[in-house]
Amino acid sequence: MTGQKNIRTVELFAGVGGFRIGLEKINNSDKRYDVVWSNQWEPSTKTQHASDIYCARFGYANHANEDLSKVKVSEIPEHDLLVGGFPCQDYSVA
Length: 94
Description:
The protein is of the alpha/beta class. The protein has a single domain (about 5-85), classed as Rossmann fold. About 20% of the residues lie in helices and about 25% in strands. It has a four-stranded parallel beta sheet with strand order 3-2-1-4, covered by helices on one side. The termini are far apart.
């Protein structure tokens, strides 16, 4: 493979960014996972701890802290890979 392939990634139900951290760990000279948009929302709480931690680590750019069912498809950028976090029943109210 010649050059680096950027794989545009969308991370849904991002939590604190577990998928993103894993993808960044496997970036190499052939491919790079670039998270172009992420979403994290806790429906039953006023505070959004997981989203706050995500933004503290990765920044607020291209991150949505809102109910995914209310996000317009047109707001989600084109992407090559879609990943979604697993439910955390011990901690999540979702």
